[in-house]
């Protein structure tokens, strides 16, 4: 499924941060850049802030009730976002920024991920979740064609399906 830049890239950044934090600043930057976010550095203090923010993002992925999920995202937006504006910088085409031009990297990460989750909830709230394998804490954004993802990986899905198969064989 093809989302707009915030619903796609930003939501994937949110999931990646939830799955990675806490981590050293350089690792968090590499993770965010790997998901397409244009961020160049974080201080140690900002990395700790990103880890705390990731803890606040996790409940959005774990919540299954749409109304509660909307409330969670609205709280994140209120706590992070400035007034949206269209930016044209560094030769990029016009795009929306949710954080102010002079905001620090932490504020930008907060606004970017909150905005991405807001777009995803509005586009298709069922395309995010936590792995269905008991005990697996990994969250994901479902970009599959059919939108029916339940597991973080093939490995987790296989473990569950093999256990279910073995249970059926015992009966």
TrEMBL record:
It comes from the Bacteria. Signal peptide: none annotated. This is Uncharacterized protein. It comes from Prauserella muralis. It holds the Pfam family zf-CGNR.
């Amino acid at each position: 499924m093809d989302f707009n830049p915030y619903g796609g890239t930003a939501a994937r950044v949110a999931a990646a941060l939830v799955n990675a934090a806490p981590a050293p600043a350089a690792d968090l930057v590499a993770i965010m850049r790997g998901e397409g976010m244009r961020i160049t550095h974080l201080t140690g203090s900002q990395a700790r802030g990103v880890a705390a923010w990731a803890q606040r993002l996790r409940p959005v992925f774990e919540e299954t009730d749409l109304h509660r999920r909307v409330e969670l995202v609205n709280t994140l937006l209120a706590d992070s976002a400035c007034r949206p504006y269209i930016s044209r910088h560094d030769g990029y085409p016009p795009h929306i920024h949710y954080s102010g031009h002079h905001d620090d990297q932490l504020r930008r990460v907060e606004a970017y991920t909150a905005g991405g989750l807001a777009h995803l909830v509005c586009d298709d709230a069922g395309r995010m979740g936590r792995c269905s394998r008991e005990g697996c804490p990994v969250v994901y954004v479902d970009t599959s064609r059919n939108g029916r993802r339940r597991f973080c990986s093939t490995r987790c899905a296989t473990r569950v399906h093999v256990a279910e198969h073995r249970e059926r064989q015992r009966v």
